[in-house]
Amino acid sequence: xxxxxxxxxxxxxxxxxxxxxxxxxxxxxxxxxxxxxxxxxxxxxxxxxxxxxxxxxxxxxxxxxxxxxxxxxxxxxxxxxxxxxxxxxxxxxxxxxxxxxxxxxxxxxxxxxxxxxxxxxxxxxxxxxxxxxxxxxxxxxxxxxxxxxxxxxxxxxxxxxxxxxxxxxxxxxxxxxxxxxxxxxxxxxxxxxxxxxxxxxxxxxxxxxxxxxxxxxxxxxxxxxxxxxxxxxxxxxxxxxxxxxxxxxxxxxxxxxxxxxxxxxxxxxxxxxxxxxxxxxxxxxxxxxxxxxxxxxxxxxxxxxxxxxxxxxxxxxxxxxxxxxxxxxxxxxxxxxxxxxxxxxxxxxxxxxxxxxxxxxx
Length: 362
Hints:
362 residues; Creatine Kinase, Chain A, domain 2; seven-stranded antiparallel β-sheet; 11 strands; 48% helix; globular
């Protein structure tokens, strides 16, 4: 059974006002003082962000427990220095992001200008184990058309600088400002994949291959495929659903590769349109069906994803729970829908953040 690990980026906010707080260094120092596992919590590009990474897990119940534990510990460390954490992919309230110290972050600020300074966005990255680079690249090639569906499910960033953007996932629009971000062409082999990355770094536009921000890529550090398409999810259960679906997609793609099935040959231009549609409407309207690239109701496309990975999920014992989680999500709404409903009910973005802080740790 393939192992799965999750990295979540959380927003540090004032517990009273809901405004972002640039206190990541202090939170990390407190976590170290409290004896936290040094492999769990990490700094990020901006001082208003805190990242944690789970250990690889085979069981989704174990993964769920670790995500909940990490969120709880992050909140405890933050509260000791006067802030708290919220699983929000953008800040609903206005913010002036503070770029972190360190040579890498300062290089990015100088190289990319305002794109770096405004890049206060929080994502959820999922790692799934693969047996080799060849298998990993074959998986990346076959995942491509399904990634916008994950975008729609995880969408949790409707507000930006105090205003409603009209998008379910505005984080994704900000993320695409990086020169290496977004969908990729079909690679066909690990050799072609690595050659492209070497050529991209050789241009000098990127500091190193750690700045390859493809929607799906081979991990630098681990024998995994890493998917970076999802917003950080408001509810831990949605994060587990995303991880479950990603593992199902990886296993399904690997089986297709071994069976000699060619990947769907959609152009990057079509994939970008599908991704835009998912970011814009989330689960509320229509999405582009991964096979046909034609509009269908979002619920039908989510069901198509479940059908696509049914055999893989059944093999890991996750099928029934994934189906139930999708039913609940389609009924209750993704994070963006929840945020907008809270705003409609309270009329206050501050109250939206306060409630999202509570749900983050629920």
